[in-house]
Amino acid sequence: WFSSTEDSRVEDEENLEPREFVGLHLSKIYFQKVLPLEQAYMYDKFHTPSWTEGDFNSKPIVLVLGQYSVGKTTFISHLLGKTYPGSHISPEPTTDRFVAICDGAKERVIPGNAAVMQEGKPFQTLKTYGSQLLNRFECVEVPDSKLLEDLILIDSPGVLSGEKQRIERGYDFSGLVRHWAERSERILLIFDAHKLDISDELKEAILSLKGNEDKIRCVLNKADRVGTQELMRVYGALLWSLGKVVFTPEVMRIFIGSFWDKPYQRTELADLFDAEKKSLMGDIKSLPQNSTIRKINEFAKRLRHVKVDRQQLIEQYVQKHSNFPPHRSRHHHHHHNHSHRRRHNR
Length: 346
Prior knowledge:
346 residues, alpha/beta, 14 helices, 8 strands, 49% helix
């Protein structure tokens, strides 16, 4: 009977999609070999939480970041081709929450503390961030969206410019951005061409993307509200500002346009905006194809971090607990005795 179950398991594996097949085998290596090491050296306490089954089986994740009122929620609705629960636009920054937007049989909102209990979804690790965060997280299921069949979108809280809001959040915003960045295939930074502003908290959030720079794409939204000359200036200013916080060998890719369903306010650059929109959609739709390679790379990157971290801890431990005096060579000791004897004889 043993061999027949083995055969059926191999048969099951043959029916898996490449993403699922790779996820299955990476998770085996992780839970058997890597996780015990992470737990022994408390990697999850000092860095990012340990991975769960959901992280290995997850669809590609797209993280959307930007300051308050740059049109993030409208941008996501535009990508989906429809509004989603909780996407009502209000003049107040009410969306001070992370929202995961996924495919579902019917439209519904799942509160954070229920969403993190769902098996197979990549949210279980959020439990480690405490109840303050879970009150500010929800999962929204949207039916009949072609995009969500292959992706999960994460809408982040709008970043405001004030210190007050940072204190009021009650959880580690940058830490959470780092958490999602590590698990994402693509990070979209949305900026407003009409009033370009990079606040300290946004800078901090961008800095916490370190190590994930290759995933970042920028979107210069509402570009139809400014003239061509002004847009060139804004584009240059954005590149310059980003160059000071994102250290990457390549020039950052910036998509320029007006990402909502209304007609362009200024039409002189309509062809450019249309072409940019097409390129951005092409970039997002290509993610599932490259997802398997990305997953392997992320796994290898985490493994390197764990190894380096373990080595550093061992070295610190050895330094702390070695009470031996500095090592002196026998040659030095012998020479010292010899000169002492010579003086004595004299």
